[in-house]
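Sharing in case it's useful to others searching the archive later.

Someone asked me privately for the predicted structure of Phenylalanine--tRNA ligase beta subunit, so I'm posting the question and my answer publicly. Question first, with the sequence:
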Amino acid sequence: MPLIPIDWLSAHVETPENLTAEQLAADLVKVGLEEEEIHRGEVTGPIVVGKVLTLAKEEQKNGKLINYCRVDVGEHNDAPGEGKEPAEMASRGIICGAHNFDVGDYVVVSLPGAELPGGFAISARKTYGHISDGMICSSKELGLGDDHDGIIVLAKANDDAAIASIPAPGEDAMGYLGLDRETLEINVTPDRGYCFSMRGVAREFSHSTGANFTDFGLPENLENPLPEPRGDENVRVDDVAPINGNVGCDRFVTRVVRGIDPTAKSPKWMTDRLTEAGMRPISLAVDVTNYVMLDLGQPLHAYDMDKMALPIVVRRAKDGEKLTTLDDVERTLHSEDLLITDTEGERILGLAGVMGGESTEISDSTVNVLIEAAHFDSISIARTSRRHRLPSEASKRFERGVDTQIAPVAAQKVVDLLVEYGGGTAGEEVTDLDNTVPYPAITFDPAEVTRLTGLTPDSAEVTRILQQIGCEVTGEFPLEVQPPTWRPDLVGPAHLVEEIARLIGYDEIESLVPASPAGRGLTDRQRRRRDMMRTLVEMGWTEVLSYPFVSSKTHDLQEIPAGDERRVALRLRNPLQDDVPLMRTSILDTLLNTAALNVARQNAGTAVVEAGVVTNPKGIASQAPLPGGARPSDEELAGLNAAIPNQPYRIAGVAVPQVHTGRAGLNAVTWDWRDAIEAVQSLARILGLKTTVHAESRAPFHPGRCARIEANGTVIGYAGELAPKVCERFDLPARSIAFEVDADVMDEVRGHEPIAVKAVETHPAAKEDIALVVADDVTSAAVEAIIREAGGDILEDVTLFDIYTGSQLEEGTKSLAYALVFRSDHTLTAEETAAARNRIVKQAGKALGATLRA
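And my answer, the predicted structure tokens:
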């Protein structure tokens, strides 16, 4: 987000005296530029100018050479002879380890009570046998740069001109160094790319306040007139693979400056502004191009002309070509990448609109500079930047849209600054390859403003506002509106309405809440899913939300076997983080990490549940053709649908064993695998589904403590205890539990029939216990299913309360004891319950070989 120094903004637009960052933010938000943050200096005073009066070099026992200085700090001086320090004159004694200054030099001194970046407080202290009563500061210590080996020398001794331009000893240095300034950081939406410049923000400040704005992007406001182009033989555009029909480069301006002094420094006002805007000063040639880019919004690039061979050729890359960019990274190029090349297109100089290459970068020996100011296609630059994960200040502007007519003005500004501060001479080689075309005019009916916003400006006011933002307006009804060259976002009447509403003021639009149509609201499916989550929360689970991105290691951590469909995951081309490039195929993929994070933060009783979609790319087309601007054909829509992966809706939970710690008079509450199964069965009951539970072996669950839950013979989910190794790898307590269900499958099993609610019976219940002896391999679920079927309508509940194996039974058998509850629309007789009991025993014997235990 751009940083806006107030003094720099004031160079473009009249601002009130003592304008604060808070007031600037309030003014800009009126026209849609929101405040991101106000940056204030980390340095607090007193920071003053000091004059070095004496300097004694003292070598220490460790071999280190230090300077003991007496420094004149004006009204902050100690009186002569005070303390144990020598009484040469009124001054302060300060220890300094730097050696780039001498007696008579003017320096920056932080006095006791000052605080430097990082919370470094200055105080008087004894060191190296002296009282150091302050500190002589370097750029790094004040947060002004990276130079910490040498202190800041404001003026050398006997340099009368420099001395006259700085504050006197003892006077405040904060303002002179720019340490007391506030900088506003604003949030710029993608359609307002012109606000990535002081020129653009100043224009918006003018719109908001009515302040007088001077557009330094116009040739007539330059100090020196634009020279006439001398032909375009130095530049050639060979774009044989335009994207979406747009040629990658439609304007290319070059200028030359020769004889620059390579030792010339950037002026202080420029480095101060760059620093305030968040950009590090480097060298004069680089600083000038960065400064003009921030000032006017036109990205520029400076080449060492002696390292290149004209003409410059703009072309697309060949697959597999290599380029080492200025960040010292070798990059493999793609055929869509737009390149700047020389030597008849053979040598690559840089990625157009993104970053230059190291072969022609500016160095300490550069004396002849070629300046590039071009206009590139926004889509091409955006794709290249994302493909190489190389965002830059240039790409950030090009992909949002740059003024098509600003290039020659920005190049002239760079030339003027290099001539003035670098001692160079402007070359006669002036190239301006211009194939730009005006943006399409918009036919606009002023009545659209009222229709879309409710505002009622007259036609004259509509015309005035459109002209104010830079449009050319002709005609009367309808209006013909030509968008300005810096507004590629204005492509239809609705965009013009938005601009008019923005400048009139959004607060002028009356708030009208539309009436809610009858019969609208949540769908049945949405209600059921809310009921499901509410049920889990009421059971003690906590709903969470996690990002659906996972690493390729997550399946190994869960011990998911090779060949399992859950390992087939969709890989993102541009993931938010390189270590999580896959879309999850199970809610547990991300929920296990969420649970582990809560455990690591000592959240006792972690029991988290999440509902969301997972991505199953199995069977989808690898690539769908992108449709153009027209409505896609049925074939194109079918292709897009074929490339969209299946995204089922799942609900999953993970809980540690102890969900409530013990308290005075109360035992700890623990959960086990049965609670995971109960969570799934509770969800099924919401939908009116009857479930059966079956033993299963499935990662990441414990092989012997995992249940497969079915409804009407269809698997709806899994629940149980997590495998010990899984708990260990995710740093979860041993015997933690989990479950996951497919809500879409549950909806399919349920169908569209309304849930039948059974009438509540008020007659007393009859209870019977029954113990059946079955083979060891017969599951309790199978026995319970027989009991429920044989029990009929009067059987209300079945509970397994005992399992017995021992010497009283034959080897290879076990006894399962159940508590049965019978109830009907009348008081049941002993004969009726006995008959039901006998039916159960008979059918269990017939189906499972069960016998009644004596």
